[in-house]
Amino acid sequence: MKRCTRCVLPETYPGITFDSDGVCSLCRQAENRSALPSYDKLRGRLSELLEDCKSVKRRYDALVAFSGGKDSTFLIHTLKEKYGLSLLACTFDNGYMSEASFRNMRTVLNAMDVDHLIVKPRADIMNKIFLGSSEPGIYPPHLTGFGSGICISCIRMVTTMSLRVAIEKGIPLVMLGNSPGQLIQSENEIIFQDNKIPYELRKNLFRPLADRLGEEVYDYVMLSKEEYRTRPFPYTVNAFPLIGYDERTIYDTISKLGWVRPEDVDPNSSNCRLNSLGIVKHLEHYGFHPYDYEMSLLVQQGIITREEALRRVEDPAETTLTLSEEVEKSLMSS
């Protein structure tokens, strides 16, 4: 398969073209992009939010969506040790987390003295949502270009759960551990309030899933109208573009806390077995790897090498395919 000679985007990626040097159109667009986020301004805004949080006496300054993976583990460490925040780690248990991930959670949170809340929705609903999300056409191309339908649904449920807990407990900030490759270089996705998107517009995004599975889906992928009307509404922060992201530093830091990489996950996950099914289904339906775009951005930003990116998006290893089959059988048996 032909891939960009600079990043790793393949010829099957929607709308892509290559020039005579084999460089893809997205890389050329990045060269000419003038409207990059003002990170200095956003860092100032983050500092203001953090100071506001700490100026009011409350149990928690921020909630961190904690998967037990490398990125959210490092995020908790940084927010506590560097910024001195009082944190609540909140985990969305989708039913397919590696057991090693839960061991990592216990180990690192005990080491850092951070409170932990695990939210586990009922398995039958989760399995229905993941199976439905694995089908083509559930989400529009502007989303499936950046990830699998399964991950889109799961990440949205993580965000909804995090906001719901933050609202219930009066926590002003929800911190997410998305890597810089999972963000589309916009200020509005780094620091924002989720209720700024009109309720009906958000509902329309999930309508194909709800039409297939039932209205109860909405309760898991989005807040209610009443919850969106909460004032003050929590801010959501994707912090890594502002606090820095270096994979070697991340692994070195969290390993000292006792974090160990799980062995029963695919190369693109450090906590979730379900991810393998998302990869296989996305390749089957769309003809490109759901991590192609993320890996390409990480290469463009100099965070990983092209060789490392290729390793993560080459044809799935036998272990990934086997794990995908196991997960799909489990989803369908409920």
Question: What does it look like?
Answer:
Strands 3-2-1-4-6-5 form a six-stranded mixed sheet, with helices on both faces. With 334 residues, it is an alpha/beta fold. The two termini are 37 Å apart. It is built from 17 helices and six strands. The mean pLDDT is 94.
Q: pLDDT below 50 for ≥5 consecutive residues: which ranges?
A: none
Q: What's the arrangement of strands in the largest beta sheet?
A: 3-2-1-4-6-5
Mean pLDDT: 94
SS content category = alpha/beta
Helix-strand string: HHEHEHEHHHEEHHHHEHHHHHH
Strand content: 5-15%
Number of helices, where a helix is a run of at least 4 consecutive DSSP H or I residues: 17
Count of beta strands? 6
> What characterizes the major β-sheet?
6 strands, mixed
Shape: globular
What percent of residues adopt helix (DSSP H or I)? 40-55%
Radius of gyration: 19 Å
CA distance, first residue to last residue? 37 Å
